[in-house]
Design goal:
This protein has helices at 3-27, 31-34, 42-71, 80-101, 112-136, 150-175, and strands spanning 140-141, 144-145. By secondary structure, the protein is mostly helical. β1 (140-141) and β2 (144-145) form a beta hairpin.
Length: 176
């Protein structure tokens, strides 16, 4: 290993240790947060289990359709990485929709507004990165959707979550 390779390896190890040290430090429960853990009641856990089942079935169906299109009809419309993430997005959308409409997504102690604000901040970051890829013209190459569209895909999932929560809120107001 040459001198530059050793330096890069040492920097990588230090960055790796700092990353996991930060994750462990953040993950250690503080005494003031020990009695304020997020709690889901029994009904919410059952509904989340059902949502996982439906999301899993959706993912399997998507992957079977994708393989069927590619192998039988020789239709390739996207990069494999994007195709896998699209399946994840489909199944995640099913999970979120089921949990939101069954009132099993937010825990009992959590603030729905705070959770949605933090999720939307992540969504805005994904949108800005996706717009950057659109400006660069990286999204479609040789007629295939590339993995550069993943940011826009997950922005769309977060936008769907916002829509689901909005619809649920409207339905709750109409029933009250």
């Amino acid at each position: 290993m040459n001198h530059t390779g050793k330096i890069v390896f040492i920097v990588f190890i230090i960055a790796y240790m700092i990353f996991w040290g930060t994750i462990i430090y953040i993950g250690i429960p503080k005494e003031q947060h020990a009695n304020k853990k997020t709690k889901h009641d029994e009904r919410q856990r059952i509904e989340q289990g059902r949502a996982c089942k439906y999301a899993y079935i959706t993912l399997i169906c998507y992957l079977l359709c994708d393989i069927f299109l590619e192998k039988i009809f020789d239709v390739v419309w996207c990069d494999h990485t994007f195709g896998v993430f699209l399946g994840i997005a489909f199944s995640l959308s099913v999970f979120l929709a089921y949990c939101v409409f069954q009132d099993a997504y937010f825990s009992i102690n959590d603030s729905k507004v705070g959770t949605m604000i933090s999720v939307n901040i992540i969504g805005l970051a994904q949108l800005f990165m996706g717009i950057d890829h659109i400006v660069d013209g990286d999204i479609v190459q040789n007629g295939l959707i590339t993995d550069n569209a993943i940011n826009l895909l997950f922005f769309a999932v977060i936008l769907l979550l916002d829509i689901f929560v909005f619809i649920r809120k409207r339905l709750d107001k109409q029933s009250a």
